[in-house]
Design goal:
Elongation Factor Tu (Ef-tu), domain 3; 2 domains; 10 strands; alpha+beta; 183 residues; 3 helices; two-stranded parallel sheet
Length: 183
């Protein structure tokens, strides 16, 4: 789902831990992988068997990345636009009210720059249907409180890679990937 949401053009499937199985089993798994991705954006993606431990075919992966995937042009000047591929609640059950944190949205910035403190708008937001069956969308307005990439605390978020954005959004709206697909 994340591959389709992000509209990725270059996909590479790595079949890891091939050192643990026989060649016939690896070929059978490769066929199962091909069937699994059939009809998806990864339908024609190459499948490369690798062993991270033995460094088998790592050179092939690097060669593919360098020759087949160009570095996209990054747009830092446009209005920020981020696509959400994960959202969650970082609070633990029974958390004290004083230490509660807002929800987190994870995704990739397509263009523009986000900064801690920025006011953000998440669309379509809260979707509801009235008695007449009419659907309404209410954008969620919030503020960026923190940003992270892996274990790095960020002040700015730029296009490319994945980022986690801590917000003031009620965690009930972000838990269990409820914001996936929103921008």
């Amino acid at each position: 789902a994340a591959v389709e949401i992000m509209r990725l053009k270059h996909i590479l499937i790595l079949q890891n831990k091939v050192e643990l199985i026989k060649e016939e089993q690896a070929l059978k798994q490769q066929e199962e992988i091909r069937n699994f991705v059939s009809g998806t954006a990864a339908d024609s993606a190459p499948i490369i068997p690798i062993s991270a431990v033995l460094k088998y075919n790592i050179d092939v992966v690097c060669e593919y990345i360098v020759t087949q995937i160009c570095v996209p042009k990054r747009d830092f000047t446009s209005f920020p636009h981020m696509i959400v591929i994960r959202s969650f609640d970082v609070n633990k059950p029974g958390e004290d009210i004083e230490t509660l944190q807002g929800g987190v949205a994870g995704g990739s910035i397509l263009h523009g720059v986000l900064k801690v403190g920025d006011k953000i708008e998440i669309r379509p937001g809260i979707i509801s249907k009235d008695e007449k069956g009419e659907i309404t969308c209410r954008p969620i307005i919030s503020q960026i409180l923190s940003m992270f990439a892996e274990n790095n605390n960020l002040k700015y978020g730029v296009p490319g890679g994945l980022i986690g954005v801590g917000t003031r959004i009620d965690p009930i709206l972000t838990r269990a990937d409820r914001l996936v697909g929103q921008v």
